[in-house]
From TrEMBL:
<comment type="pathway">
    <text>Isoprenoid biosynthesis; isopentenyl diphosphate biosynthesis via mevalonate pathway; isopentenyl diphosphate from (R)-mevalonate: step 2/3.</text>
</comment>
<feature type="binding site">
    <location>
        <position position="136"/>
    </location>
    <ligand>
        <name>ATP</name>
    </ligand>
</feature>
<keyword id="KW-0443">Lipid metabolism</keyword>
<keyword id="KW-0808">Transferase</keyword>
<feature type="binding site">
    <location>
        <position position="175"/>
    </location>
    <ligand>
        <name>ATP</name>
    </ligand>
</feature>
<feature type="binding site">
    <location>
        <position position="165"/>
    </location>
    <ligand>
        <name>substrate</name>
    </ligand>
</feature>
<dbReference type="GO" id="GO:0005829">
    <property type="term" value="C:cytosol"/>
</dbReference>
<dbReference type="GO" id="GO:0005524">
    <property type="term" value="F:ATP binding"/>
</dbReference>
<dbReference type="InterPro" id="IPR005919">
    <property type="entry name" value="Pmev_kin_anim"/>
</dbReference>
<keyword id="KW-0153">Cholesterol metabolism</keyword>
<protein>
    <recommendedName>
        <fullName>Phosphomevalonate kinase</fullName>
        <ecNumber>2.7.4.2</ecNumber>
    </recommendedName>
</protein>
<dbReference type="InterPro" id="IPR027417">
    <property type="entry name" value="P-loop_NTPase"/>
</dbReference>
<keyword id="KW-0067">ATP-binding</keyword>
<dbReference type="GO" id="GO:0004631">
    <property type="term" value="F:phosphomevalonate kinase activity"/>
</dbReference>
<keyword id="KW-0753">Steroid metabolism</keyword>
<feature type="binding site">
    <location>
        <begin position="12"/>
        <end position="18"/>
    </location>
    <ligand>
        <name>ATP</name>
    </ligand>
</feature>
<keyword id="KW-0418">Kinase</keyword>
Length: 185
């Protein structure tokens, strides 16, 4: 079964992509599935390096230790097929009507979803001020924060919704309400 709606979430490091999409999933329940484009990348990396996949998926230090290498390896793969990780990541979600893609990072990610799911996609940008992101553990790293995986969508202007998740954020309930209103239009 194809999805009826595909929500694409984007935002810079520590803006709260996992936090917001986890809460959204808890609210929507069985109807939805979270898709992480980074999952096939991390699965490969965990296998190759003999790492704990769950730890690599969590908000801990392991992810940061390997982030740069994972970006560089995955960019090489994308040069051959820009949709390769999007395609594999979606396999797990087949059967659910609402797809929540929690880590859209590049124009080619949006392009791939548009090509495959057309007007079912809605794009959401999460923003947070740098101080708040720093409090959550963000620290600028050259090769990570100044390359396409982090900045690829900085100049994208077609967002269906922009959500503030920094110092001036609304309550999570209000944030979720705004997102859910996209599903019903
Ligand atoms: N609205 C919020 N209220 C309270 N804590 C938050 C909020 N948003 C995010 N956080 C916390 O900030 C930290 C970073 O958030 P999260 O992991 O969701 O960011 P991310 O955008 O997914 O980061 P990354 O790009 O590194 O994967 C987490 O510990 C999370 O619980």
């Amino acid at each position: 079964m194809n999805p009826t709606i595909v929500l694409l979430f984007s935002g810079k490091r520590k803006c709260g992509k996992d936090f917001i999409t986890d809460h959204l999933q808890a609210k929507l329940g069985d109807k939805c599935e979270i898709i992480k484009i980074s999952l096939p990348i991390k699965s490969y990396w965990a296998k190759e390096m003999n790492l704990n996949l769950n730890e690599l998926l969590s908000d801990g230090a392991l992810k940061e230790n390997y982030r740069l290498e994972m970006i560089n390896w995955s960019d090489k793969m994308r040069e051959k097929d820009y949709g390769c990780f999007c395609k594999v990541a979606c396999e797990n979600a087949k059967g659910k009507p609402i797809w929540i893609v929690s880590d859209v990072r590049r124009g080619t990610d949006i392009q791939w979803f548009k090509e495959n799911y057309g007007n079912k996609i809605k794009t959401i940008r999460l923003i947070a001020d740098e101080d708040t992101r720093r409090e959550r553990g963000y620290k600028f790293k050259s090769g990570v924060d100044d390359v396409a995986s982090e900045c690829g969508l900085d100049n994208y202007s077609g967002w269906d919704l922009v959500i503030e998740n920094g110092r001036n954020r609304d309550s999570i309930e209000k944030q979720l309400e705004k997102i859910i209103s996209l599903i019903s239009v």
